Amino acid sequence: MADSSLSLPPLCERISYANYFLRAVYLTILGLFFSLLSHRIRHMSEYDTVWRVAFFCETCFSLVCLLITCLKWSPADTKPFPDRLDERVHDLPSVDMFVPTADPVREPPIMVVDTVLSLLAVNYPANRLACYVSDDGCSPLTYFSLKEASKFAKIWVPFCKKYNIRVRAPFRYFLNPISDVTEGSEFSKDWETTKREYQKLSRKVEDATGDSHLLDVEDDFEAFSNTKSNDHSTIVKVVWENKGGVGDEKEVPHIVYISREKRPNYLHHQKCGAMNFLARVSGLMTNAPYILNVDCDMYANDADVVRQAICIFLEKSLNPKHCAFVQFLQEFYDSNTSQIVVLQSYLGRGIAGIQGPIYIGSGCVHTRRVMYGLSPDDLEGDGSLSLVATREFLVEDSLARRFGNSKEMVKSVVGAIQRNPNPQNILTNSIEAAQEVGHCHYEYQTSWGNTIGWLYDSVAEDLNTSIGIHSRGWTSSYISPDTPAFLGSMPQGVPEALLQQRRWATGWIEILFNKQSPLRGMFCKKIRFRQRLAYLCIITSLRSIPELIYCLLPAYCLLHNSALFPKGTYLGITITLVGMHCLYTLWEFVNLGYSVQSWLVSQSVWRIVATSSWLFSIFDITLKLLGISETVFIITKKTVPAGPSEGEDDGPNSDSSKFEFDGSLHFLPGTFIVLVNLAALAVFTVGLQRSSYSHGRGSSGMAEACVCVLVMMLFFPFLKGLFEKGKYGIPLSTLSKAGFLAVLFVVFSV
Ligand SMILES: O=c1ccn([C@@H]2O[C@H](COP(=O)(O)OP(=O)(O)O[C@H]3O[C@H](CO)[C@@H](O)[C@H](O)[C@H]3O)[C@@H](O)[C@H]2O)c(=O)[nH]1
Ligand SMILES: [Mn+2]
Fold first, then answer.
1. Is 648 annotated as a binding residue?
2. Containing domain of residue 597, as a range?
3. How many angstroms separate the alpha carbon of residue 717 from the centre of ligand 1?
4. Which residues span the membrane (predicted)?
């Protein structure tokens, strides 16, 4: 398939970002931590409990710092050269593209359609692509939208390819007017027509929303009658089949709509179950060796995404046998998520420099064979199956046991593992087999979700699956191009964002307790030591406890009149430590082109997330461990992006930057922290602290008061929320609960 001449320039290059100055900074920060902790130990007996509690918290922080330093030590990523692909490879491998969606209300179908259109239009031979949409909502509206989108695709895809359009998600592309184009030119006419057609599509989808007649109009919708999202049979519909054809028709890849069977009282494993069903149906139909997985709220922002990933898989000098998946950096188009991009850029690249990036659920190209459970040891140097593995893998009985009792499925697995995919000539021929593999009980007693496919037992199926792959000794590659490859949507509004963070953190801690746990089999699995640390990094969400304590300690010290910080040189060391940490994190932001303001906001965001979402995730896990409740995947609510008719507003809406509250418990810790610190500062200012304290060295002072002010600044949105009204103000119920707790705290402290 690939041209074997190694004299040609490589298809990709690994780039190392190791930096000695930064390493010196990390070591200095660690050194400062160490000296502060050793001072605390040496003087433990001279001070009261506060000193010990502070020591506990600072030990936790220094461990997190040590962990992160280990991970950031040797950052790297991979730069692909898609322009070189055509001269090196004459027959590009097929790629199946998966888009899961789950709820037509929380995930508006027009958003799903835009994601699908951006994928259909990527720069790749259309007969090598297939797009599969899994609908866990079993919604006729989603199916209808997809059918309409497939018609528009015949205009959109050729238009993008003809004019080499960069952004191929229509809602995004049509946000901006065309510039530098002569009126009446062919391009401007095509542009107008295409835009009009897209507007028509949006309107049709909008009009169909809530239209119950959809089901009566066409027989095609019969499968959706009398269904509920949690109670229905499997539905498999080939929306569009690329049969070669002529003209524009041959430019549009296959589009398949699927919705697995759901019954109440059956475990469906949320997104993870949907991904495994997608793997099976696509295996039966096109069986491509590579799988691109994109969430429905994310679109391909660069037409070359698939080619970029394929460059890495096909570069021989990189030992393709080892690259299990290629993960792209994720960015977001609708909210200020600089803190997440910064985290991925530094920590993500750091981990990429060890054994490879962690799979983060979207914007990732997987190898089908790896998803089917292969290990690097099962392969020869040229990627073919070793003799031992052939004997182990390709016995029909054992295949049926692991992959389920469908003969067609077993055949497709054999093909995929032997790199002989044998795709169906006519997709509709596989519909029956596809329905069979969608039954609720199909996975019963098989290895799906256990050692094969996307792995169950955590709402963070991405991380869980990723550990499974790296544990078998695979590496992965990270691409973080200058033009974002994928752009996604983040929940609008603070309550939704906190809920999402809580689900993530719950999923991460869940992993600690399942059989994939990075803690288990510390020395027997093939995962590298520092990669294991990378996965352990997920427990940093447990630092919510020391963070919460540390936000309250200075206030306690002011009220109780005891010292939190050492005096003299060691106070200097503490201030230098905080200062260096701030300067370093500020540099991270500025270096990526973000403002000082966004750095300030991020400091606040992380503290708020830690003391609410992460804290509550510990409750969720405790309840799960006690068998009281199960963790659930609450789908984040997505807002429809502004369409072309709604104006040219490019950025997030003006109010979205304002901090909103609702009545949920997520806002209780923040309100409590602010009230307690306010009370402590008030007591300190009027000099009402407890005065009978006997230790001469132990009284509080300006240092503790300054930290109280710092905490208030970090929780500034809550301080503001005390005085605001409506959704921007803290609800009375939260305020009264927090007030009650704050009074108890003050009484207990003085
Ligand atoms: O039962 C379900 C639930 C969700 N989804 C899909 O999963 C995707 C992610 O859901 P979303 O609500 O957008 O969650 P996010 O927090 O944005 O998702 C992040 O976090 C998840 C793990 O918690 C990962 O699976 C995602 O890939 C990652 O982008 C969406 O396409 C959903 O349609 C399903 O298909 N079935
Ligand atoms: Mn999402």
1. no
2. 21-73+530-637+657-749
3. 28
4. 20-38, 50-74, 568-587, 667-688, 700-718, 730-748
